[in-house]
Amino acid sequence: VTLSPTLIKAVILFPFNVMVIIPALILWISDQFQSYQFRIIPVVVGGVLILVGLYTIWITVSLFTDYGKGTPAPYAPPKILVIIGIYKYVRNPMMIGVWSVLFGEAILFFSFWVLIWFLIFFTASILFVTLWEEGDLESRFGESYREYKKKVPRWIPRRFSL
């Protein structure tokens, strides 16, 4: 991944705020940092979800920058439709990675309020993808995206899609 200023800005504006700043503020405001008790199962389950999510995000950002010649940000999107790698199995793996991190944080910190943040973000991202992003991709990539959309599921990966 080439760390251009545009990519760094894209990462700080969206994923860093969504996955780090907002959950940290929630934990701080709800006073859960001080009352956190180490529990092995939430640490393991939450930790695994966070690591899987971060790995998925890393893979997808790499594909966007290296193959797609853009960033995950709507103001500097990929110039080439990314349908290789993990995108052969599911159309929105980056969002699934973010969901995995947020849900993992809710489990790790055993936090009702981080879970509520996850549910709010989950709902908002589904609406964003279905109401705006897919239309934008159709207008930018035309028939290529429409064919891709027919073959590859939006959220639940298939073992073999393309």
UniProtKB/TrEMBL annotation:
It holds the Pfam family PEMT. It is a multi-pass membrane protein. The keyword Magnesium does not apply. InterPro entries: Phopholipid_MeTrfase. The keyword Endoplasmic reticulum does not apply. GO terms for cellular component: endomembrane system. It is found in: Endomembrane system. Its main location: membrane. The chain crosses the membrane at residues 6-28, 40-61, 102-132. Signal peptide: none annotated. Keywords: Membrane, Transmembrane, Transmembrane helix. This is Steroid 5-alpha reductase C-terminal domain-containing protein. It comes from marine metagenome. The lineage of its organism: unclassified sequences, metagenomes, ecological metagenomes.
